[in-house]
Structure formats: structure tokens, C-alpha cells
Amino acid sequence: MTKRIVVVGGGFAGLWAAAAASRLRDLHGAEGGLDIQLVAPDPFHTIRVRCYESDLDGIRVPLDDVLVPIGVRRCEARVERIDVAGRSLTLRAADGSGEELTYDRLVLAAGSAVAPPPIPGLADHAFDVDTHAGAARLDTHLRSLSKGPQRPGRWTAAVLGAGLVGIEIACELPARLAALKTTAGSDEPVRVILIERGPEIGADMGAGRPAILAALAQAGVEVRTLTAIASVDDQGITLGNGEAIAVGTVICATGLRASPLAEQIAAPRDALGRLGVDAYLAVEGVPGIYAAGDIARAVADEAGHATVMSCQHARPMGRLAGHNAACDLLGIPAERIAFSAPDYVTVLDLGPWGAAYTSGWQRDVLVASGEEAKRVKTVINRQRIYPPGGRDAILAAAAPIVQSRPAAPQAT
Fold first, then answer.
1. Nearby residues of 199 by Cβ (< 8 Å), 6 or more positions away
2. Is 175 helix (H, G, I), strand (E, B) or coil?
3. Which residues, listed in sequence order, are joined to residue 258 by a DSSP beta bridge?
4. pLDDT for 403
């Protein structure tokens, strides 16, 4: 009897979960006994960490380029409901049609989305760089500025949130806006304001913080800390102290929250909405379901550090979840592998200034900065995190990293 693994999500965790399951199926010659399906709302694997860049060419890889060669079926739909007891999903396609899809093992890798604060007018007037669609919408807007009416703040941008994404887009915007303004023949000044509710910019970047401050200063980015936004409208923003600033572009970079699909699983979730998983990435207390990537919170090392919402963790988590789910269905639970990611690095793009490359969970070691770190970031963004081409190369890249951990218990 054929068993089925369903992977929800076509991001870093979902793509590699499907590939890892296919790899194990291939190794055990079980092509006829294990059906693998990936459900995603669009046909692309987006290199999401590049959405802040000005050039969006090449940041989407057709999912079928990876899935078809390795025998994974793709279903283009959104998951509306998870029936845990019945082990089935309710799907809804773009045309409104629906269907039920059953599973024997589910790998939930639905990711996360930007979590905007409840600021009046923000939803109607702000942009984001969380998805390809959001980044493309921002790009269209920026290019339209030269054709719009001349008004105060036309070439002013406000970035709300000084986390890693907020810093990256803030460093990118001054040169981007200046190039567009020059093409339009405008002599209006470019102004980029980075707004943070907390007391510091880059407070969590440890040894990388001086590089961040240097890059923002070189780019001419205005920094406002301990600043709240009261409202946003088509003329700009109003701060909590009543100050109104004319702004032509507002970008929300206020952090991420796990997919609301996690809320359909009766299991513990953390403050970011992530499902708790065990060492093998199985959702705690819920038979038949694994979770990986931004929707899951896993323990990464013996010190108890938790995974972060990053492709650095999503990719290996996906490989392990897909591998372990396939182990269950192929009757080889002893071959399941425990997740471990003891080494943590951060490489933050800082626009024309360069980048900051730190090591350690507290980012307390500065490995490189400036142009040297920028070269590392470019290799990561444009080469290392892309899936390879060709069946053999894809399956080889899907191999999970084997760590020294206790033997896996029998799966249920």
C-alpha cells in the first residue's frame, strides 16, 4: 500500500523537506511505495532573503525545476484547514476550487510573515519586503515616484523597525532612491529615516553593531530610537509625540510571526507562534506531524539555544523533517536523525558600505566587515542557498547532516 508524505510550503524548509524524503525513497528503492506531494500557493521557490535588494531578477526558482526531476508532485493551493485526527488537509486553489488531501505524514513548513503593529493606516499605506510580491510592489511604487505629482516628502522613505531586515533595506534605499531621482531629473533631496521603538539600533548585533552604525552614517540614514508611530496616511507618518513627517514611502519591517496554520495544531507554541518540536522535529504530542523552518521552534544545541527564523536553520530543519518523516513510512525509524545546529553566524548586508559577518549566538565575534563580508554575503545570497540543477545534484544536496545523538525511538 502506497503511503503519502505531504509537505506544506515551498520555501527553504518545505523544498528541502520534499527533496530529503525523495532522497531516502530513492536510496531504499521505494518509488512505488511512497508518494510525496508539496503544497504551495504559487509555483516558485523564492529566495526570500534577497527581497530587500533593488534587483529582483532571479530571486524566484520554479519549484518544478527541483521537484519534477526528483519525482515530487506539486499542488498549487493554499491550506485552509488541517484535520489532525483525520490526517487530511482542506485545500483551496486560486480559482476558488477546493479539495481534500490525505496524508500519512505531514511536514508543516508554511513559514512566517511580517507582523505589522496595529497602527492606523499602516495596512493601507505601507510596503514590505517580506515576499517577492511585496518587493515587486515596492519596486513599482518607487519607480512611479518620478511620474507622480511633486509634493513634500516624495523622495523621503521611512523604515519602521530596525531589526535585521529593516537595517538591510534602510542601507539599500538611499542609493536606490538617488538613482531613480537622478533619472527623473529631480533636484529634491533624498531622505531615509530608520525608526525604532527600542533604545538602540542593532542592539542584538553584538560585535557587528559598530559596522551597522558606520554604514547607516555613510548612507546618510537618519536614525530615530525610542520612537513610536501614531498613524500613517497618504501624506506620510505621524509620530507618537505628534510630529508629522511628509513621507512618500513607508516600509514595514517590524518582525515576523509564524504562519497561522500553526494555530490549528493543538500543541504548545512560543511567543512568535512557532510550534514546539522534539529533537527529531516531530510536533510535540501530535502523531504524524513534523514541522520545520519558521513555523517551528527547535532546540539547536546542548546549551538550549532555540532556532531562529532564518534560512540558516530552515534548510537543515527541512532536510531532517523530510528525512525523518520518510523513515517513519519506510519502516526504518532507527534511521531518524536528531537536529543539531551548534554553530550560528550572521551576515548582514549593509548596502554600499559592505556587510557585517559575526559568529556566535550573541554575535560576539566579528569575523569580517566591509567589502570582505560583502563578498561572503554575495556568495550566500546568489549561490550557496540556491538549489542545484539536475536530479543527482538535487538529491545529493538534500542529504541531512548526521550528528552524534541518541538513537531514535520507535515512531508512532
1. 225, 226
2. helix
3. 112
4. 55
Average pLDDT over residues 1-18: 97
Per DSSP, what are the bridge partners of residue 244? 238
Which residue type is seen at 277? V
| Torsion angle (degrees, nearest 10) of CA 142, 146, 152, 157 | 20
pTM: 0.94
For residue 231, the SS3 value is strand
DSSP state of 381: I
How far is it, in rounded angstroms, from Cα 402 to Cα 312?
16
Contact 227, 197 (CB under 8 A): yes
Query: Which residues 6+ apart lie within 8 Å of 43 measured at CB?
Result: 62, 63, 64, 74, 76
What's at 397, amino acid-wise? A
Spatial separation of the C-alpha atoms in residues 312 and 295, rounded to whole Å:
14
Q: Going by DSSP bridges, is the β-strand pair 126-127/249-252 parallel, antiparallel, or unpaired?
A: parallel
DSSP state of 261: G
pLDDT at 303: 94
Mean pLDDT of all residues in 221-230: 97
Which of these, 288, 278, 296, 290, lies nearest to 321 by C-alpha position? Answer: 290
- Residue 382 carries which DSSP code? I
Q: Which three cell numbers stand for residue 324?
A: 525523518
Radius of gyration of the chain measured on its C-alpha atoms:
22
For 209-309, where are the alpha helices, taking DSSP H only? 209-219
Q: Which residues of 64-73 are buried (b: 16+ CB within 10 A; e: fewer)?
A: eebbebbebe
CA distance 131 to 396: 28
Three-state DSSP class for residue 203: helix
Angle between helices 209-219 and 164-184 (to 10 degrees): 20
Residues 248-267: tens digit of each pLDDT: 999 999 999 999 999 999 99
In 3D space, the residue among 12, 71, 100, 90 whose CA is nearest the CA of residue 320 turns out to be: 12
